Amino acid sequence: MSRALKSLAIFAAFVAIYTLSRHVVHSTTTTTTTTAPHSTTTSTSGVTTTSLAGDTCLANDFSGVYNTGEGAAGTVYASVTLTKSTAGSCTLRGWPILTLQDRLGGLVTISPVDVPSSGNNFQFLTPPQANHASTTLTIAHNDTTSFALAYSDVPVGTETCASAVTVSVQFVKEGATVSVTPSYPVQPCDGGQIWVSPFY
Description:
By secondary structure, the chain is mainly beta. It contains 1 helix and 13 strands. The chain has one domain: Immunoglobulin-like (Sandwich), CATH 2.60.40.
C-alpha cells in the first residue's frame, strides 16, 4: 500500500473516532406506578343494617306461656316465657309491648311502666335479671326468652278493675303478636298500671 493510501486510511479512522466521540448516548428509564383500586360498598337502599347473629326476632316465630305468679302486699307478680319455634337465630332487645283483652275480645286499658327506668324505683322480686337494664339477646331455635310483669289488684277508691283473659305480646309496634292465656284473669287496678321488665 502506498504512503498516500496509508495516510488516507489513518485520516479516515481518525475522523470516524472523532465523530463517534462527539455523540452522547442517553439512556431512558421508564417507571410504572400501579395504584390499587379503591373498594366501594354501595347500598341500593341507602341504608346499611348490621345484625349481631341473625335477623330481628319476629313474634310470629314464637309460642308463649303465661306463668302465674304470686301476690305480695296487694301486688301480683307474673312472667311470660316465649320459645322460638322456627329454625335459625334472631336478636331481641328492649321491652315487650302488651295488649290485654277481656272475655269479649275488647281491649283493656293499661298503663305500662318500663322497669328499670329513671321514673320509678319498682323492683321485681324474682328473677334478679328482671331488674337489669335491657341487653341484646340472641335467640336460636328452641331457645327461650322471658319478661316479668307486675300489677296492683287493689282498687283505688270506687275504681272497678278490668279483667283480662288474654295477653298479647309484640316485639315491635305494628308487628306480629304472641298471645298467651293466663290461668286466672289479669286484673290491673290503679288505672291499669302494669310494671314490665325487659326481655331477659
